[in-house]
Amino acid sequence: MDLFAVAVHEFGHAIGLVHTSALESIMRPYYQGPVGDPLKYDLPYEDKVRVWQLYGVRDSVSHTRLARDAPDRCSSHFDAVAQIRGEAFFFKGKYFWRLTREKHLVSLRPAQIQRFWRGLPANLDGLDAVYERPGDHKIVFFKGLKYWVFKDNNVEEGYPRPISDFGLPLEGGVDAAFVWLHNDKTYFFKDTRYWRYDDHLRRMDPGYPKDATLWKGLPPNLDDAMRWSDGEPAAFSH
């Protein structure tokens, strides 16, 4: 066996990581073979995310304490929800929680959004919607009339940009966004209307917006929606 690969796996356990079924993770429960030159080794993004969730991203403060305004996940609604890399993210105010593919909380304590995705506004007080873009798997964040695109946890150059890039009106932002696996299209909701966007062609489908009541059973006061593990959309409301 490759000693370095095994050592990295065991160090992962030492700092609090558990086994995962994620294909790209060093924390898979069975030996996966050598990982290459140790001097050029880069921890898989999947594992970086779990470390950041536990400890935060390194900055000038060596120890991070949760602020007093950290929300209680059991007694408040969420601002936004998203499925990213097969896992569920729940956003509230400045914080988020993360569920693994096995639907287990990575940590009972929320992590700070801005510390995790550097490039979002330092004074961020919440998000409107988040989704993982089909095709290139980049992460798109919406707040007000602006949006940001991230590759993993790195913001792309030139952001933020106006949501009019999507063909959305500059009048209050969006309430929800999710990608539906049946057609690989992105759906945006705002108040009583919804839009269908083609991320591959980077254009809004013709004939939109439409009346959101076409989605039978959609709750009022929609906070956000996401693609659940079975591929079907799930809506969240307060």
Automatic annotation (TrEMBL):
Residues given in the record as Zn(2+) binding sites: 9, 13, 19, 27
Catalytic residues of the enzyme: 10
Keywords: Calcium, Hydrolase, Metal-binding, Metalloprotease, Protease, Repeat, Zinc, Zymogen
Name of a matching Pfam family: Peptidase_M10
Cofactor(s) required for function per UniProt: Ca(2+); Zn(2+)
InterPro entries: Hemopexin-like_dom (IPR000585), Hemopexin-like_dom_sf (IPR036375), Hemopexin-like_repeat (IPR018487), MetalloPept_cat_dom_sf (IPR024079), Pept_M10_metallopeptidase (IPR001818), Pept_M10A (IPR021190)
Every Peptidase M10 metallopeptidase domain range: 1-56
Matches recorded under PROSITE patterns: HEMOPEXIN_2
Superkingdom field: Eukaryota
GO MF entries: metalloendopeptidase activity; zinc ion binding
Cellular component terms per the entry's GO annotation: extracellular matrix; extracellular space
Residue sites binding Ca(2+) 4 per the record: 79, 128, 223
Residues with Phosphotyrosine modification: 159
Gene Ontology biological process terms in this record: collagen catabolic process; extracellular matrix organization; proteolysis
Intervals holding Hemopexin repeats: 75-120, 124-170, 171-218
Record-linked Gene3D superfamilies: Collagenase (Catalytic Domain), Hemopexin-like domain
Cofactor info, note text: Can bind about 5 Ca(2+) ions per subunit.
Residues reported to bind Ca(2+) 5: 177
Name of the protein in question: Peptidase M10 metallopeptidase domain-containing protein
Source species of the chain: Muraenolepis orangiensis (Patagonian moray cod)
Upper taxonomic lineage: Eukaryota, Metazoa, Chordata, Craniata, Vertebrata
